[in-house]
Amino acid sequence: MSQDEDIGPDGQKELLPKITGVQAQRRASATEALASFMGGRGSTGRSSSKWQQKFEGTRSSKFKKEVQDRLSGTRRSTLGAGSSGSHERKRPSAFMMVKNFYDGYKDNEGKAYRPPHTRAETKKRGASIAQLKKFRNDEFFTDERKRIDEGMADTEIDGLGDGGVIGELLDREMVDINELSEHVRQQLKVKYDNRPYFTTWIMFVHTVIMIITLATQPFAPVGFKDQVKKSQISKPNLAYETVGYNQSTNFWIGPDFQSLIHLGAKYSPCMRKDKIYYESIASDATKEDASGCCYRGDLNACWQSQKDACASDFAKFMEGKVCGLGRLGCQDTKYNDEALWAGNFSTWPNCPISKDYQSSIPNTNGENDNLKCEVSARPCCVGLQGECIIVSQEECEFKQGFFHENNTLCSQVSCITDICGLSGFLLHDIPDQFYRAILPTFMHAGIIHLLITLVFQFYVLHDIEKITGWWRIAIVYLSSGIGGTMLSAILIPYQPEIGASGALYGILAALVVEVIVNWQLYRSPILELVKLLIPITIFFLFGLMPWIDNFAHIGGFVFGFLTSFVVLPHITFSEEDRIAKLVVKIVAGVMAIVLFVLLFIIFYLAQDATCEGCKYLNCIPFTESFCQDASQELRPRVGA
Question: How far is CA 271 from CA 150, 290, 369, 417, 526, in A?
Fold first, then answer.
């Protein structure tokens, strides 16, 4: 028998039997497999990951020692009597894995098959992809690879909802592929196996933002209704009284909603110059103009107040005066003009009195007591809507407000800037944080909220992206999130909302669209559609609870439905069907764009637009206070 020389890992020449015919073909296949794993020139590219998974599993197998022993015995029988026990050597782990995979493989003559030993031999004897395709019937190829290489159609048809948890739950029944035309079968030959880049990225972003949120913001009490918090607090008159306020709760286990607004939650007064909100601020300013300085001479303390709130026997109400603010107390010469101090309080310049200058102010008959006293209360912005109240610093901190120690009037501060946070506004008090239309899609109200989103993305979004590709599913996901947020901002503008629920409902809409556009592929398409619509309807019914934003769900579903027609891949069954689906794609794309434009126009320009019956789509008032948190109205503000 003729022999070939081969170089082993120990540098010694080995004599191997020369193989031809079927053995050579199989040896070429094994050579290519080993090259795929070890990085040789004959890497198959697409199949290499499959080989590597098989090899990695073998690498950590508890049977590795058994494989080594079996290899040693095979090696001694191959070398024959001319080899001694001392010549025995250990082969590379890659070879051990290949040998374990092909263990028991015999050629037509019943002889054991031995793959190449070394990386050098692998490169030397590696076969190209073209050579491998000549032997597609070799049992080393998987059935799926054979079908792709030979152009054979699968006997099972895959759709968006046929894989993963959705596929198991829906148990869809597809038509037999032999019942379809050759044109359709040719389209079904294409196998989509995209990597879930977008799903991985969006899950990572959600998790990181949640970690940052929990690390920087305090946890709110867990519950469904606001909790009343009370404490003994020093009031402006320096007396201690029991003060209480309603602290918002969060049953998702996370920060309170004031903190979430500060981080980027949907809240219309932060996104536009809200007409109703600024009307309430103007009303507060009018009320403030009727206030005066309440002076306690025995304590040399003063605070801005309404006349009826300054009724103590020890207090003097100084009408038309502002505590700690006036022309005589302003050292800045540009504010010396008396005309600047003649109008309403809200038009007065903010020129606080310095401690050093205060003692030099004349005070004949106590007419300037308001400038000589110690101001014990200043503006404080509290609550979700940024109500401004004049209180002590201690009370402001207790109510988790924003205290303005350098101001004396509420008209001098912009509470909406304090509440909204983030980057502030381009103009001092004109809200313009339009990016809140997309930010809530990446944020969550708490740990439970995040876990629900991650589970959905892992089991549903992941499988859909593998079929559609990252950019298609990204368009559906993000457009649904923005559309849901904008509809919610229009219909419940003063209820802060956060989360990716609108985007997730857009993904559910994509599953519905997949059934519609591939109607002929299902044996009972109406049944398959009902299987989808029943759980989706149940989810919408859950959205009628007061702490869930059902408008975001509805908006997300509508935009997901439209954009899915535009971007998702589909099968055409005839030329007429292709034209019809092209028309539907164009119409759906135009409708999506028009709806986006209409939502932004209504939100910014038609703020008076309302929908009386729409509130019942978001919450059904089973009791008088059941839907209190889902109100479309601006809650009463606390005046200055």
Answer: 57, 31, 42, 11, 43
Q: Residue 96 is encoded by which pair of tokens?
A: 């051990």
DSSP 3-state assignment of 375? Answer: strand
Strands (E), 320-451: 374-375, 378-382, 387-391, 402-403
Q: Is 401 left (phi over 0), alpha (psi -120 to 50) or beta?
A: beta
pTM (2 decimals)?
A: 0.72
Cβ count within 10 A of residue 391: 26
Which residue, 325, 322, 385, 378, is CA-closest to 353?
325
Strands 301-305 and 374-375: parallel
Residues in the chain: 640
Q: Classify residue 461 by its DSSP letter.
A: I
Q: Which amino acid is at 145?
A: R
Q: What is the pLDDT confidence band of residue 135, given thresholds at 50, 70 and 90?
A: very low
Rounded Cα distance between 638 and 569, Å, is 55
**6: burial class by Cβ within 10 Å (0-12, 13-18, 19+)?**
middle
Three-point CA angle 385, 390, 396, nearest 5°: 70
Question: How do strand 374-375 and strand 292-296 relate by DSSP bridges?
Answer: unpaired
Instruction: Report how far residue 32's alpha carbon sits from residue 140's, in angstroms, rounded to the nearest whole number.
Output: 11
C-alpha pair distances (Å), 451 with each of 392, 457, 476: 41, 10, 21
Long-range contacts formed by 570-575: CB under 8 A, 24+ apart: 570/514, 570/517, 570/518, 571/184, 571/187, 571/188, 571/517, 571/518, 571/520, 571/521, 572/183, 572/187, 573/181, 573/183, 573/184, 573/520, 574/183
Place of tokens 């310095």: 354
Please report the sign of the dihedral spanned by the C-alpha atoms of residue 103, residue 104, residue 107, residue 113: positive
Indicate the SS3 state at residue 577.
helix
621-632 in b/e form (b: 16+ CB < 10 A) is eeeeeebebbeb
pLDDT in tens, 501-539: 999 999 999 999 999 998 988 889 999 999 999 999 999
Cα–Cα dist 440/213, whole Å = 13
Give the burial class of 228: count Cβ atoms within 10 A of its Cβ; 0-12 exposed, 13-18 middle, 19 or more buried: exposed
